[in-house]
Specification:
With about 350 residues, the chain is of the alpha/beta class. It is built from eleven helices and eleven strands. The protein has helices at about 5-40, 55-75, 90-95, 110-120, 155-165, 180-190, 205-210, 220-230, 280-295, 295-305, 315-335, and strands at about 45-50, 75-80, 105-110, 130-140, 140-145, 170-175, 195-200, 215-220, 235-240, 265-275, 305-310.
Length: about 350
């Protein structure tokens, strides 16, 4: 067979180059449009999914941060409460939303780190299904009791009561796998106590029942716990952090009351669906970081018993991975099951 001559080879290469250019045209044409879309973002309201009912720490922090982002970007950042199933319903909705920057999630320790161990058949992965934006806040839990139901005035007295009558005391939480649930599981493990878990569809309704005396106590974040304590409606026994809260220095830590080394804090962070363009993630990270480091939001969080804790998307992702491992061990040791 005769080898093709130089002219034939040149013609073939020319046709191949033309075909390659033709095939590349859609991507080339789409690239400027994508860049313009990202540059224009946001040009309409952005929803921030809170996977719990109104009134809890997640909701309070989400609304405070949403107001700051709305001011930064000039578009409404609308909080959408989608509670149920320990936060998995709202988290799933965010995971499966379009990755266009118009749906965000305010996730926390329960939805991102605990639920993977409690709910083995989730339709999403709390690491792979999301584009982390930033860790937002660390929130120590506050052990509060209804003083009409529980006579204890300290952690030591509560432990003694619980050991006298195992499972007689009831504690509420915002649902299976919620921050209050896992904090109490850690407390029971550390103190050898047994208290009955009563899950709710959110922190708000749980706090209503605690105030009414339907349940005895909870171990929840400062934002929902401190206001009724200051109003004299609940009694605070201890905080879960290593040091006392600057917003309530009169409340001793659990560790200093005979449970050495105890620490079980909540944390909250902002995420987008996986695949959200990195320029949008970076803009959100920059705006959220600036807001969280600013005096107004930082002081508001501190008043609520929370501490601003912004960082990079990569650091937040690594943090979620580490927390999943840590709390999976607590779930295993406590033999936690869905109630």
């Amino acid at each position: 067979m005769k080898a093709p001559g130089p002219a034939a080879v040149a013609a073939f290469l020319s046709r191949r180059a033309a075909l390659s250019a033709l095939l590349a045209m859609p991507a080339a044409l789409a690239a400027p449009r994508l860049a313009r879309a990202q540059a224009a973002w946001p040009d309409r309201p952005v929803r921030v999914i809170v996977p719990f009912t109104p009134g809890g720490s997640t909701d309070i922090i989400a609304r405070a941060l949403a107001m700051e982002l709305q001011s930064a970007f000039g578009q409404p950042f609308v909080v959408e409460n989608r509670g149920g199933a320990g936060g998995t319903i709202g988290t799933e909705a965010a995971a499966h939303a379009a990755p266009d920057g118009y749906t965000l999630l305010l996730g926390h320790i329960g939805t991102l780190a605990v639920n993977p161990s409690l709910y083995p058949n989730l339709s999403f992965d709390t690491v792979e299904s999301f584009a982390p934006i930033t860790l937002a806040a660390m929130v120590p839990n506050v052990m509060v009791v209804n003083p009409r139901k529980v006579p204890a005035g300290s952690i030591g007295e509560l432990i003694a009561l619980a050991k006298q009558k195992p499972r007689a005391l009831t504690f509420g939480s915002g649902g299976n796998g919620s921050a209050a649930h896992i904090a109490m599981a850690a407390f029971n493990l550390a103190t050898g106590t047994e208290m009955e878990h009563v899950p709710y569809r959110g922190t708000g309704p749980m706090m209503s029942d605690l105030l009414a005396g339907t349940i005895d106590l909870t171990f929840t974040g400062g934002p929902p716990a401190l206001p009724p304590v200051r109003a004299g409606m609940l009694r605070a026994l201890g905080v879960s952090s290593r040091r006392r809260l600057s917003a309530a220095p009169e409340i001793p830590t659990v560790a200093e009351q005979g449970v050495p080394g105890f620490e079980a804090n909540q944390w909250y962070g902002l995420l987008a669906p996986a695949g959200t363009p990195r320029p949008i993630v970076d803009r959100l990270n920059a705006a959220a970081t600036k807001s969280l480091q600013g005096d107004a939001l930082r002081r508001r969080l501190e008043t609520e018993g929370a501490e601003a804790a912004p960082g990079t998307p990569e650091a937040f992702r690594d943090f979620i991975v580490a927390e999943r491992k840590r709390w999976a061990e607590v779930v295993r040791r406590a033999d936690l099951r869905l109630d």
